[in-house]
Design goal:
The protein is α/β, with parallel strands linked by helices. It folds into 2 domains: 3-56; 63-319, 2-enoyl-CoA Hydratase, Chain A, domain 1 (Alpha-Beta Complex). The protein has 14 helices and 8 strands. It has helices at residues 11-29, 36-54, 59-66, 74-81, 123-128, 136-152, 169-173, 176-189, 204-211, 229-236, 243-250, 254-260, 278-296, 301-319; strands at residues 83-87, 100-107, 110-117, 156-162, 194-203, 215-219, 223-225, 265-267. Strands 1, 2, 3, 4, 5, 6, 7 and 8 form an 8-stranded mixed sheet that branches. It starts with 10 loop residues before the first helix and ends with a helix.
Length: 320
């Protein structure tokens, strides 16, 4: 991982790994110099430091980890878990929206429909995918794919990773709120299993549109909230710098939401976060999805729809 990719609270780790890198260069430059023991000692120290730091992350630190640019994104999960993936584009009403990636593929031998929000990995792809913030045509594409899945009896797997829906004027002009509401409504009407995993940031209605599922999973360092900490701070205290305080109040971590009954399972990330162990994280998510999908596929179609409705009704009972 490059130096600039370390988070603020990871500075102790950055310093140790910088020393290790320096020793490796020294070993290569000077023949006969053996510093393997010192490198091994520092690596053990790094592992200990990583375990200690990530065992007690605050909600704000988890927010930073959830937004880490090197975290595996939707396309990484598709590449790692879905075979024979065929992307489908367009809402058949206005345009294609690359912020939402969707298509047909096979997961553990089952034909499935996959839909997810993609933020992009570099400047070019982030601009292409609009940083994962979908316009109305993106949500209408999701509706089209959900209805197609229902027609052919295909389970739906969704990956949530967005700060929220696209906030620009053109989104409002084309009916952003209606598109999100219609997407949620379409999800409730499906008679096929829907399993969702929040893989990074789940923000606002833009996230809920793809998270109206029978089973909602979250990675342990992901976040899921009705508003971003910065947005909450701007509204409550008229001061965006109070984001850390807002993160504490929003109960946006996986642990908080599991306790509140909003999510069904926390998928534990390896020590150091998903960005340090991408393959292991993707594999863990795949196992969790497979387990829930196999359970849901034993139900008949009407029961699947009722199960989803009951899940969300139960949330209102828990909070009343």
């Amino acid at each position: 991982m490059e130096q600039e990719q370390y988070l603020e609270f990871e500075k102790p780790i950055a310093e140790l790994e910088s020393k290790i890198e320096g020793l490796r260069h020294l070993s290569q430059a000077e023949e006969g110099v053996s510093i393997a023991d010192e490198i091994s000692r520092l690596q053990k120290k790094v592992e200990k430091q990583v375990n200690q730091l990530y065992a007690k992350l605050t909600p704000w630190q988890k927010t930073q980890v959830a937004r880490h640019p090197e975290r595996p994104h939707c396309v990484d999960y598709i590449d790692g878990l879905i075979t024979d993936f065929t992307p489908l584009a367009g809402d058949r009403l206005f345009a294609e929206d690359a912020a939402i990636v969707g298509g047909l593929g096979r997961f553990q031998g089952h034909s499935v429909m996959v839909i997810g929000q993609e933020k992009g990995h570099d400047i070019e792809t982030r601009l292409k995918h609009s940083f994962g913030m979908a316009k109305p045509e993106g949500y209408r594409k999701a509706i089209r794919l959900m209805k197609m899945a229902d027609r052919f009896g295909l389970p739906v797997i969704t990956f949530v990773d967005t700060a929220g829906a696209f906030p620009g004027l053109e989104g409002e002009e084309r009916g952003q709120a209606e598109a999100i509401a219609s997407c949620i409504d379409a999800s409730f009407s499906l008679r096929v299993p829907v399993v969702c995993c929040v893989i990074g940031e789940g923000g606002s209605g833009g996230a809920i549109a793809l998270a109206t599922a029978n089973r909602l999973l979250m990675l342990s360092n992901s976040i899921y909230s009705v508003i971003s900490p910065e947005g909450c701070a701007s509204i409550l205290w008229r001061d965006g710098t109070q984001a850390q305080k807002a993160a504490e109040a929003l109960h946006l971590t996986a642990d908080d939401l599991k306790e509140l009954g909003v999510i069904d399972e926390i998928v534990e990330e390896p020590a150091g976060g998903a960005h340090r162990a991408k393959k292991e994280t993707i594999a863990a998510v795949g196992k969790a999805i497979e387990r829930h999908l196999n359970e849901l596929m034993k139900m008949d179609r009407d029961k699947i729809r009722c199960d989803r409705e009951e899940k969300f009704l139960q949330m209102t009972r828990l909070q009343s």
